[in-house]
Amino acid sequence: xxxxxxxxTVFILGYLLAIIFRxxxxxxxxxxxxxxxLTASSLGLLTSTLLIAHAIAxxxxxxxxxSHGPKKVQIVLMLxxxxxxxxxxxxxxxxxxxxxxLLIGIGFSGSLMxxxxxxxxxxxxxxxxxxxxxxxxxxxxGLLVTSWPTEYLLNFFTWRGTYxxxxxxxxxxxxxxxxxxxxxxYTDNSKPVTQRLFDLKIVFKDISIWYLGPLIWITGGxxxxxxxxxxxxxxxxxxxxxxEEVATGLTINAIAAISGIFLSGLIAKxxxxxxxxxxxxxxxxxxxNILSLAPIFxxxxxxxxxxxxxxxxTGQGGILSYPWITAKFGMALSSRANTIVxxxxxxxxxxxxxxxxxxxxxxxxxxxxxxxxxAYHISFMIIFGIQIIVLIWFFTGQKHLKLNKTExxxx
Length: 411
Fold this sequence. Notes:
The chain has about 400 residues and is an all-alpha fold. It is built from 18 helices and no strands. α1 (about 1-35) packs parallel to α5 and α2 (about 40-90) packs across α4 (about 110-120). The chain is globular, with a radius of gyration of 20 Å.
């Protein structure tokens, strides 16, 4: 029990740092715009580069997690993230900073999936959904850190100095990973890398992935894209919040995301005792998430602001798919299958985050420097429409998402 708690805690810290660097530009946006002279689209591209880097790394990540285990993969990748963070903090060149964000993205690409792999290796199967939920929800504290705490740090440091504080924390987590995570459990590196990559065809050929995956991609991707960058500017430009009020709004969103992800795992564990299909729970949560986006662009900002809380709470309901996928494809393929789902999420997150910035740049600024509220309305409306189409597609494939009795017992 104590070992399980230690393992989960270490991977929580790693994922927390990943969330910090994924979302920190949301609070640093005014500083970056002023210091590096960024437009909305360049800010979106710079920030979302980390997400496409996450996506690029997912397939090789899955291969090496299955063959070398979470400890080695986590340490190596976080060292790479450290290099990227140092380059970013020292540069003022947009191209070098974009390259640095690419390194950071690759470096933190395994933080969540390494934790999920550790859960599947060291915890009982019936505790997998809850263990995954704990890691993902506690890691979302990173969103909380990049609200008021980061705003407070900016009273004492420049944005570069603030990066330096977090770089020190990366080294601490690397050391804890090396000391606290035990020797590898179930891994298989007997096959050459080419063969392990070839085994991915088993996942890609399974039609269930092509019905389940898109729903997780579009909801999780939009959630990451909006919550880690555009929620802050929305509070400022659309709702008219001051910088302090923006920090408060982001803090509330962070708390909502943390509680929502934890509750998803807890609810799944409780309801599984009553033989309720985990995908039914997932579907309910993601429908709520999709519908919560509509009031944000349809209602007055004073009301729409409250729906950000629901959006934040429900956007990562796709986490409940990971135990289902592990049961479907087995432990030997679990990391590769889960990282394929993760890949799609980050690809969508990249395009959504960049797309919103492009739409914003199509509209003239208001009050001299604020982004035009209409740009948010149009971009959010388009995202909502795509989500509805994907949800319909998901429902057409229900017959392909049924597990056999043996697979159900593994969840």
